[in-house]
Design brief:
The complex is a heterodimer of chains A (283) and B (315). With 283 residues, chain A is mainly α. Chain A has helices at 2-32, 39-57, 61-82, 92-114, 137-159, 161-171, 173-178, 183-208, 216-230, 235-255, 258-261, 264-275, and strands at residues 127-130, 133-136. In chain A, α1 (2-32) runs antiparallel to α8 (183-208), α2 (39-57) crosses α8 and α2 (39-57) packs across α9. Chain A is globular and about 60 Å long. With 315 residues, chain B is an all-alpha fold. In chain B, α7 (153-175) packs antiparallel against α10. The chains are: A mainly alpha (283), B mainly alpha (315). The A-B interface holds A 35, 83, 86-87, 90, 92-94, 96-98, 100-109, 111-112, 221, 224, 228, 257, 259-260, 262-263, 265-267, 269-270, 273-274, 277 and B 59, 106-107, 110, 112-114, 116-118, 120-122, 124-125, 128-129, 131-133, 241, 244, 248, 278-282, 284-289, 292-293, 296.
């Protein structure tokens, strides 16, 4: 029983990080209308960001998680201004192919400069023991970090003026424009926020797992499954979707095999798109 | 009068060109032969992709699935059951086109990006599944199947030349047919096409299965040519991407765009791979981005726009 509970908790902790990646993807997709295949690559860049800060400046990784948010926000808005903004009125599939190119470009450059060596941030090794449950320290801290970022995102979208602007743009960009909302700026901000979420997720990931240039692919496929589960542009749905994927992965890894766990995102995408293409939740 | 003259000229030129291509094994070195085999394989992939996606506008990101399924069946037949290669190849193509009818029946109801993603999911899922222990008795798991088909390079070259020619010919016939027009109508406005009485689902499935058959045949030949198959190789996303880039490069929705793209791009690939191996993928990605941003209509589309080529669907 404790064993099962432990697996469940491990799944929820895993899911909180996946949800962070998925929320970034769903925001950009829902508001900007761009399907960002390169999203996983920003997770990778975030992980390397934390790794280099740790190995050069020996800063606490928790600080680099905090730093990654503004850093990747800037990068995201710049990429949008320079590149993806041109695709605002182009067919959806152009963006798909463009970001595919971007994804390949980024991971290959990362591979070129940083080599394929597996790296990790040695921080917070060891376990907590809570009520007979053994929990890895790094994963527990990551869980609360991810949850904290998620909650601040929810608060931002719900209460701040800018968040309301973003939601308005997402619901009906033309009417939002008529109401005096600078939708162009909102799209750039959202793109930046999506990238910032991916970067922060990457920085969190570097605390618990090894990092390497091609790690983005597995995150982006999970993020797609999360978006499909939660419904396009639905941030709360993405959080639940993230938990579902995390728990499923943890259970399948335990009771079947790690290889089977890799099939889950693909399977979920296919099943949900067939049975309920709008996602599990009403927006 | 002048037009008729042009027509005979084109036919004579075409016959000479084909005679040249057929005679190549008699004088070319092995290096050029392998290069040509690759060009022809990618011509089949790119034209086959273009046949469905270029005409209907449904971006198929599951080309590697066609290649992998067909490659696996034909390789297993050759390696484990000692089938003759010429019989094994069509079996692969047939299997994947039958399967794709089922897949198309289910997935072609999903539009746009979701269709693209579900095809990627299907490919990735199949790749992982073929590598697990559950299918090991059939697929030999992740360690792959090395095999020798006992086919010489010239024979392989002629087979793939025939297939490439047939593929381009089918594309040519289809784009200038009423069937092709119906597919283009689906691309431009599916709802309007349906209102006009086009059975859109049926047309899409036929085009999808035909594309799967041609690409599957190409995949079977490709695996025989490599003498090896494993899940990561046969279902590699690279096999989906490269033909798409080639088609975009040459001109999407045109007949000869994919051929032109496959030829030029294979040469670019050769040079880049030899000179800049480590940055090859980065350059590939950058080319993809530049194409989408600045030349979305491709080389042939650009030539048509500038008036170098006539604006007709047959080219």
């Amino acid at each position: 029983m404790t064993n099962f509970l432990e697996i469940l908790i491990r799944g929820l902790m895993l899911g909180s990080v996946y949800a962070l990646v998925g929320m970034g993807l769903t925001l950009v997709w829902g508001v900007v209308g761009i399907v960002n295949i390169a999203h996983g690559e920003f997770v990778m860049l975030g992980a390397y960001f934390a790794f280099w800060i740790f190995s050069f400046f020996h800063l606490n990784p928790l600080i680099s998680v905090a730093l990654s948010l503004p850093f990747f926000f800037l990068i995201g808005t710049m990429i949008h201004k320079r590149i993806t903004e041109r695709l605002t009125n182009a067919p959806e599939l152009s963006a798909l192919i463009l970001t595919f190119g971007m994804s390949i470009l980024i991971w290959n450059l990362a591979q070129f400069f940083w080599t394929n060596t597996y790296r990790s941030v040695p921080y917070l090794t060891g376990n907590f023991s809570v009520m007979g449950l053994i929990l890895a320290k790094s994963k527990t801290v990551s869980f609360f970090l991810a949850l904290g970022i998620t909650l601040s995102l929810f608060a931002f979208l719900k209460y701040s003026k800018m968040g309301k602007g973003i939601r308005a743009t997402s619901q009906n960009s033309e009417v939002a424009l008529v109401c005096g909302i600078d939708t162009k700026k909102m799209r750039a901000l959202t793109f930046g926020m999506g990238i910032a979420l991916a970067g922060a997720a990457g920085a969190i990931v570097s605390l618990q797992w090894v990092i390497f240039p091609q790690m983005g692919g597995s995150y982006v496929s999970k993020a797609f499954a999360i978006v499909v589960l939660g419904g396009l542009g639905n941030v709360q749905g993405a959080l639940v979707g993230g938990f579902i994927i995390g728990v499923l992965e943890s259970l399948v890894t335990q009771y079947m095999s790690a290889k089977m766990a890799q099939i889950i995102p693909s399977l979920i995408i296919l099943i949900i798109l067939l049975l309920k293409p709008t996602g599990l939740f009403k927006k | 009068m002048g037009k008729k003259f042009e027509r005979t000229q084109i036919i004579i030129g075409f016959i000479l060109f084909m005679a040249f291509l057929i005679s190549i094994p008699f004088f070319a070195s092995d290096y050029w032969m392998t290069l040509l085999v690759l060009i022809l394989i990618y011509t089949v992939y790119a034209s086959g992709w273009n046949l469905f996606s270029g005409l209907t506008g449904y971006t198929n990101f599951g080309l590697a699935w066609f290649i992998g399924i067909s490659g696996y069946l034909s390789s297993i037949l050759i390696a484990d059951y000692q089938w003759f290669w010429l019989l094994a190849w069509p079996m692969g193509g047939l299997l994947v086109s039958i399967l794709s009818m089922g897949v198309g029946y289910i997935l072609l109801r999903i539009k746009g990006v979701y269709f693209a993603i579900s095809m990627v999911a299907l490919t990735e899922g199949t790749r992982e599944l073929f590598g697990t222990g559950y299918l090991e008795p059939i697929t030999h798991g992740g360690k792959g199947i090395p095999f020798v088909a006992g086919i010489r390079l010239p024979t392989l070259y002629w087979s793939i030349l025939f297939l490439a020619f047939a593929t381009v010919f089918i594309c040519y016939k289809i784009t200038s047919s009423r069937f092709g027009l119906r597919l283009v109508a689906i691309r431009e406005d599916e709802q309007a096409a349906e209102t006009l009485g086009i059975h859109t689902t049926k047309e899409k499935i036929i085009a999808f299965a035909l594309s799967a058959f041609l690409v599957g045949l190409g995949g079977a030949i490709h695996c025989t040519y490599q003498n090896y198959i494993d899940p990561n190789y046969a279902f590699n996303i690279q096999l989906t991407l490269t033909p798409i880039v080639m088609t975009l490069f040459g001109g999407i929705g045109t007949v000869f765009g994919p051929v032109l793209g496959a030829t030029l791009f294979t040469f670019i690939h050769e040079i880049l791979w030899a000179e800049l191996t480590l940055l090859y993928m980065a350059i590939f990605g950058a080319i993809l981005m530049i194409l989408i941003l600045f030349f979305p209509q491709g080389l042939l589309g650009w030539m048509k726009e500038k008036g170098i080529l006539p604006k007709i669907r047959k080219i």
